[in-house]
Amino acid sequence: MSILAIENLSYSYDKGETPVLKDINFEFEKGKIYAIVGRSGAGKTTLLSLISGLRKSTEGKILYDGKDISGLDREKYRSQNIGVVFQDFNLLPHLTALENVVLSMDIAGMKVADKKEYALQMLKKVELNEEKANRRILKLSGGEQQRVAIARALSYNPEVIIADEPTGNLDEATENAIIKILKGLAYEDDKCVIIVTHSPNISKNVDKMFSLQEN
Predict the structure, then answer these.
(1) What is the mean pLDDT of each run of 10 residues along the chain (215 residues)?
(2) 34: closest CA among 203, 170, 147?
(3) CATH of 30-54+74-211, one of 3.40.50.300, 1.10.287.110, 3.30.499.10, 3.30.2130.10
């Protein structure tokens, strides 16, 4: 059974305008990695915003674990069920990597005995050691910042991870390292991983690819 399903989804920015997305039907399962591809303007990032509950669809449904997300508590859904990794990281630069992850846990209401130790485990999962965990964000490379962003998305143990162009600003070697981490989340941790991407390298490393056409 799919953990996430998109049924007859359409979206327009304004009433009466041509939909940027029209009659979209996709299904996503846990334990698999997916790519959403398409030309600029095809609505990839808009679809991500709809899946993550930041926008509401004009028509159709998005089902999470069989429930229409329009009827869910949006804040709880975004802070507990869906983890989003942004292309520009969206990290707080005045905090350390560790502090960024702990803050995400606080927002999600995570209850663990030792939040710092748990956050360190998440950072180690994405191959960042304790020394780098205690560096401020601006003291980390772009690839390291993206790893922090992934650790932050993992910190409240969501079943679905969505990444928006996660390797768009990274070199090939760093991209391969990020792909390895994302594949591990799907195949070892049984997450549903959805990547919005232009990268041919990512596209050849996924279980299934969905293509959006510009309307």
Answers:
(1) 94 85 96 94 91 92 96 91 89 96 92 94 95 96 94 94 90 92 96 94 95 80
(2) 203
(3) 3.40.50.300
